[in-house]
Amino acid sequence: MSFSIKQSALPLNVSRSVVPRRSPSIRPSFSPYLNLQSNAIKKTTLVSASVSKPLHISSIGSCFHREEKPVVRCKAYETDKSPSAGVKSETAQRVKIGIYFATWWALNVVFNIYNKKVLNVYPFPWLTSTLSLACGSLMMLVSWAVRIAEPPKIDLEFWKALFPVAVAHTIGHVAATVSMSKVAVSFTHIIKSGEPAFSVLVSRFLLGDTFPPAVYLSLLPIIGGCALAAVTELNFNMTGFMGAMISNLAFVFRNIFSKKGMKGKSVSGMNYYACLCMLSLVILTPFAIAVEGPHMWAAGWKEAVSLIGSQFIWWVAAQSIFYHLYNQVSYMSLDEISPLTFSVGNTMKRISVIVSSIIIFHTPVQPINALGAAIAILGTFLYSQVRDRCKLLTMMRSCYIAPSQTSQVVSFAGKSMRNHPGFKNFDSSNNIDERYS
């Protein structure tokens, strides 16, 4: 939103309070176009000034007292670009987000294909998970060393806060890999689409959070769809099923720990994931050695190479590289888009992975099984819509905005309030808590 203010001699502070004179019979209303008039010091002259650059509202608050007139506090900031430049910038931003999404989906599909190929002939999920983290850590260390990426400025307190996040991330990563080693890729992703249900239940019963009834109702298609897909799965395996379920639970706790412990930590999405990857590697390596061990790895490696040939080495390298790249792009995209937009992209990503894996691996699918998958994924999408709507209503209540004014508040110059710069950081936590792996 933009508006002009005219001033002749005095500088204007757009963050101060403005007290409009209204008659008692006129009902206060919110309008995105404001005429600001200064009468704080009882002057008869009208203060007018001209600002050539548009001002964007960053926050609005209203206060009503028994004996005082309504007070509207409006904070705004001046942009550095003209309206025409703003349109070009918005178009460029949309193109950039589209590239992020296309790259994210493509990398995720390629990772899942190579990961499944490796696990089919080399069933050592603990080592496979370790190699993925090791490859990502090495890539980021090299990027920092040659200044392709700016190294983060972090301290010991950052690593302490990141440790529980890394533990949960490690468990979720290994559990998902174990699941894929036992069942089809499509089945693992169908079960993993039920992560929002775990998020709500854990937050409700362990953290004491409350949610509107609409949020609980949106979980029904997720739970029902996952149950239907599991019951009708032709190649059902309990270890694979439990691996996907444990992965869901672990990633929910990862998000909770991140929300609680990483609040206020100023690190970009790319560097955040790099640090998370390195700490997870340190945690996972001794457990991988204890569970599987070098002797099993060596014997399995010889058998896989003799069966597939040198191409197997490329499969292992590809699944490790693409695992890091797709996660890196997904965390980078969180710096550019709102959690709602990300959740929509995540839903589409899961659909692309399921469909592509069924086609490539010729996975047999019954119609009832496909129906269960569709219901579960649709439920995930509906949950993200309902959750974001509830957050918007909560934000409006905190700003004392009447429900009758919702249509005016939701849109500023055609933009969603959730994406408006003034409300972009409404959530106190890092956007990682909105991410579903």
UniProtKB/TrEMBL annotation:
It is a multi-pass membrane protein. Residues 96-384 form the Sugar phosphate transporter domain. The chain crosses the membrane at residues 97-114, 126-146, 214-232, 269-289, 304-325, 337-361, 367-386. It is found in: Plastid, Chloroplast membrane. Pfam families: TPT. SUPFAM superfamilies: Multidrug resistance efflux transporter EmrE. It comes from the Eukaryota. Keywords: Chloroplast, Membrane, Plastid, Transit peptide, Transmembrane, Transmembrane helix, Transport. The keyword Electron transport does not apply. The keyword Chloroplast applies. InterPro entries: EmrE-like, Sugar_P_trans_dom, Tpt_PEP_transl, TPT_transporter. This is Sugar phosphate transporter domain-containing protein. It comes from Hibiscus sabdariffa. The lineage of its organism: Eukaryota, Viridiplantae, Streptophyta, Embryophyta, Tracheophyta.
